[in-house]
UniProtKB/TrEMBL annotation:
EC number annotated for this UniProt entry: 1.16.3.4
Gene3D superfamilies: Cupredoxins - blue copper proteins
Assembly and oligomerization: Monomer.
Gene Ontology terms for molecular function: copper ion binding; oxidoreductase activity
Record-linked InterPro entries: Cu-oxidase-like_N (IPR011707), Cu-oxidase_C (IPR011706), Cu-oxidase_fam (IPR045087), Cu_oxidase_Cu_BS (IPR002355), Cupredoxin (IPR008972), TAT_signal (IPR006311)
Domain named Plastocyanin-like: residues: 114-238, 457-565
Domain of life: Bacteria
Organism of this sequence: Methylomarinum roseum
Catalytic activities: 4 Cu(+) + O2 + 4 H(+) = 4 Cu(2+) + 2 H2O
Record's protein name: Multicopper oxidase CueO
Length: 567
């Protein structure tokens, strides 16, 4: 099938390698110089390299879709009074996830090193990390009960983390009490109920999110609890982004995917595959290692995709949709194919773009997501093509400003092209989802959030996280302009606000273009960057957070509470 490129925005040669998270502008020479430090602060004495493992020998793990349970089987029935608008959005699907401590095969050569070859220690959802994928549809409300079945703090084997759990479905339009507010946690033996209304913000289908992830958000322990294994993916479909490339609906986008969830391992929706990246360092006994004393951030030396170290995936000679997530805690990526071939970016932070953008790389900061379409029909059976990370980073503060090349590129994963003559009814649409309108007449307030560093801790507007202080209280039904500023000259901060997506008005004074012309929920700010964004606040009230999504910064107090108050 011929790819239609008629209306597709073609990035110019310079833009093709542009770090989009930095506002689509290359870092200035001054900023690059400030970023380039002679050595990282990691010392081999405190953080030795992981044991050597052979790349591309472990098959990619593709989690199945979470299976619904019969609501009658819930031992305690859901309490409608605990949830805003529960009766209006009565759940159609019910799910349970049990969070446990166990063992995970990150790589068989690491498992060989573990005691009794049981696998690396991991915290998991229903026995896997990533947990099963929450597949939901707009208009079909969902109820998820998450049980904390972890051992108590004095009994856990995991040397890091704290066994209290708060789960954030990033960045669903979720009522506060179900949002994974960092103080809304369940101790071992307790559960927390999450009600996802599956409504579009403001009932506007152009506000749909497509690619989301859920992860632990425990106050002070988000980085360690996610690093221990507590993350998973979520996919929201609707009538145009239906997950079915054979969809007969006249407005269906027919992106790659054939709705074959729950089949044989590796077949979860066939050609629509989620890839979550976490960089991990392993100790000599094959367990995840972590330096809790480094508050700049944590870097692993091995990249895991869906918690397999440098896996491979067999692909057919056709188009695939990959939903790519930076699961953190602190690493930034620029991903490109080994042969430098282009692909199409179709979303930013889980939101479909208006038009696909052709590019040869994507740039992600912690919690950024992008969906891409890669067409493997140009390869021959038996060929392999690797995904590499070319973003150099030598400590947790942010990218060094340099690019890795040749053998210094970091292995991410390998695609192995298999011999097949498979049908491909998917398309790369000319137009996907319109951006919601921006009406500046609705703006009632303008606020500034400055991300900085004071007294060895990370601050927002000079303050540390204090859940008793409400730093902003926008009224429901209003719009505001928010400014995110990075006051630091040598670090990057992925700034994340829960609940609503924003649209960029200006990035360092320039109007957004390309993939930045989108809805987003993480503004990844390079040194001295300034993003001016447009928000509307609707549908639910309660407490939410704004924080740096370098989870180590977040845990070292770079977070504030803000509330939506009744209009
Ligand atoms: Cu930060």
């Amino acid at each position: 099938m011929t790819i239609k490129r008629r209306q597709i925005l073609k990035a110019g040669a310079a833009a093709l390698t542009t770090p989009a998270i930095f506002g689509g502008a290359m870092l200035s020479k001054t900023a690059q110089a400030q970023l380039c430090r002679p050595t990282g602060i990691r010392s081999p004495g405190t953080e030795p390299d992981s044991p050597p493992v052979t790349p591309f020998t472990e098959p990619l793990f593709i989690p199945d879709a979470l299976s619904p349970v019969n609501p009658a089987s819930l031992t305690t029935p859901p309490d409608p009074n605990r949830h805003q608008r529960f009766d209006e959005f009565q759940p159609i699907k019910y799910y349970e996830q049990r969070i446990t401590e166990g063992y995970w095969n990150y790589h068989s050569e690491l498992t060989q090193l573990t005691p009794n070859q049981s696998g690396s220690l991991a915290w998991m959802y229903n026995g896997s990390t990533p947990g099963e994928t929450l597949v939901a549809r707009y208009g079909e409300p969902v109820f998820v009960r998450r049980y904390n079945d972890l051992p108590t703090a004095d009994q856990i084997q995991m040397p890091i983390g704290y066994p209290a759990i708060s789960t954030h479905l990033h960045n669903a339009h979720t009522a506060s009490e179900s949002d994974g507010y960092p103080m809304d946690f369940a101790e071992p033996g307790q559960f927390w109920d999450h009600h996802y209304a599956m409504m579009y913000a403001r009932n506007d289908p152009n506000e749909a999110l497509a690619s989301l992830w859920y992860h632990d958000h425990m106050i002070d322990f988000t980085a360690t609890n996610v690093y221990a294994g507590l993350s998973g993916m979520a996919i929201f479909y609707d009538h145009i982004d239906s997950g079915d490339e054979n969809d007969k609906h006249p407005h269906a986008l027919r992106l790659p995917g054939n709705m074959r969830f729950g089949g044989a391992p590796g077949s979860a929706n066939g050609y629509d595959i989620s890839l979550i990246l976490h960089d991990v360092r392993f100790d000599s006994s094959g367990n995840p290692a972590y330096n809790v004393f480094d508050t700049d951030g944590h870097l692993g030396d091995l990249i895991t995709v869906n918690r397999k170290v440098m896996p491979y995936l067999n692909v057919e000679r056709r188009k695939y949709r990959f939903r790519i997530y930076d699961g953190g805690p602190s690493r930034f990526y620029e991903l490109q194919l080994g042969d430098g071939d282009p692909f199409f970016i179709i979303s930013n932070d889980g939101n479909l773009l208006e038009e696909p953008v052709e590019a040869t790389s994507i740039v992600l900061g912690p919690a950024n997501r992008q969906d891409v379409i890669i067409d493997f029909s140009r390869y021959s059976p038996g060929q392999t093509v690797e995904f590499f990370n070319v973003m150099e980073q030598i400590n947790g503060q942010g990218p060094s400003g340099r690019r890795l090349d040749g053998p210094s590129r970091m292995n991410v994963m390998q695609f192995r092209i298999i011999d097949s003559n498979v049908e491909d009814n998917s398309q790369i649409p000319d137009f996907m989802r319109k951006l919601p309108p921006i009406n500046l007449n609705e703006v009632v307030a303008e606020r500034e959030w400055v991300f900085d560093h004071d007294m060895g801790l990370w601050t927002v507007n000079g303050s540390f996280m204090d859940p008793t202080i409400i730093s902003a209280a926008p009224r429901q039904g209003t719009a505001e302009i928010w400014h995110f500023r990075n006051a630091g000259s040598s670090w990057a901060h992925p700034c994340h606000v829960h609940f609503e997506e924003f649209q960029v008005l200006e990035w360092n004074g320039k109007k957004p273009t390309g993939v930045l012309r989108s809805r987003k929920d993480v503004a990844t700010l390079g040194p001295n960057d300034h993003a001016k964004v447009f928000y509307r606040f609707d549908d639910f009230v309660g407490r939410y957070v704004i924080h740096c999504h370098n989870n180590v910064h977040e845990d070292n107090a770079m977070m504030l509470r803000w509330d939506i108050t009744p209009g």
